[in-house]
Amino acid sequence: MSCNRHTISNMIVFDSSTLILLAKIDILELFISNFYGRVLIPEKVRLEVSAGGGEERLIMVKLIEDNIIKVAKVKNSRQIKKLMEDFNIDAGEAEALTLAIQEKANMVATDDRNAIRACKLLNIDFVTAIAVLIRAVEKALISKDEAIIKLQKLQSVGRYSKEIINNAVKQIKGGG
Description:
Helices cover 60% and strands 10% of the residues. The protein is of the alpha/beta class. It has a domain at 11-129: 3-Layer(aba) Sandwich (Rossmann fold), CATH 3.40.50. It has a 5-stranded parallel beta sheet with strand order 3-2-1-4-5. Helix 3 crosses helix 6 (91-103), helix 5 crosses helix 6 (91-103) and helix 8 runs parallel beside helix 10.
């Protein structure tokens, strides 16, 4: 992250995938309550997470209604279209990336493979649901046993390779 700004504010922009995954494993509220900064989503992500079913939708909608997750307007619609074309990503991911650039966010939370590739090429820091889970263990916010259970749930609801899951298990258990 470049430090050429006078005031560096902590800000993370979520796309739908990571927001939903963290809500499904019941760690979204824990993450947000331990994140010192602004949590943003674009309007498209608000629409996507509000339309879903299940218990996780209620959690996300409440966090949005309580203004804990802030919805921000994306100004550059041309950039959204360009990102969608260049990286073969959906509108929600493209809006999240555009919002991160627009607001000079520190990080994008995404589990979408093409959005991760876009972050790497655009030099935007990113975090995945698994990385958030591992960090929660490192900060002693949850136990290793609880994290393994949540990881198993993530494995069943997310699209992760065996290698990613096995590496996460090693990190959670403290083996690197």
